[in-house]
Amino acid sequence: MTAAALTAAHPGITIELVPMTAAGDRILDRALADVGGKVLWTRELDAALSEGWIDLAVHSLKDVETLRPEEFYLAAMLPRADARDRLVVRSDWTVTGILDLPQGARVGTSSPRRTAQLLAVRPDLATPLLRGNVQTRLARVADASVDATLLAAAGLDRLGMDDVGMAIATTELLPAASQGAIGIECRITDDAVRALLCVIDDIPTRTAVAAERDLLAALGGDCRSPVAAHAVYDGAGILRLRAILYASDGSAQVGGDTIIDCDDAAAALARKLLADGPPSITALFRGV
Question: Residue 174 falls within a domain, yes or no?
Fold first, then answer.
């Protein structure tokens, strides 16, 4: 997708794709927070970019740590895809949503956000650890290792699986910050590549995702901190950010929203949520 956008913007440009497998795709038997966090999705690409093996790195921004090395610059974002989650269930089940899942259903996930959100509305559910790429997780549902799972709609759509699972409204499951967004980084000193990338930068996506990531930075959470955040433009062109923090077991939550009309708006919302939240939530965030 990035190569196609660059080729359309700069006819005649030569682009080489350099496939890489991150450690996050190789270590599948433990929760991400137990083996290094989101850096496992960026470490190999960062090394290649820093050492000049590649000129730009393409990331699913949901999986990129909030604070990045100063040597890199997030030069462009592609237009945001569907930010919702999709519920995928066993083929022998007919359900209409999370509330319709059978008592005690096993919903495999490795996401603290999804775990907390599921348990908040269905404390009877089991949430066994399930990691791996889309195909791996779908296979675990198909062979009944788990009864269901949640996957990002954007990832399924990009794999041509737009008919897999049922989309869950953001009013029911608020997405992770940056979900559905693709970000492209280059070396901050590489003016030529920055100039190429700025042409394909989608400004509405960048503005919305920046608000979500500013909120995360102000919360000071980590990979164990259940937080959902989503910024969208309304019909009048006003950007509104909604966020919810959870206790790990879903037993408590605190949410709020704000209009992004100044540089401090997202951070102000983060401070309010931390001030209003109970200890079962605030202990999971250190604040900044």
Answer: no
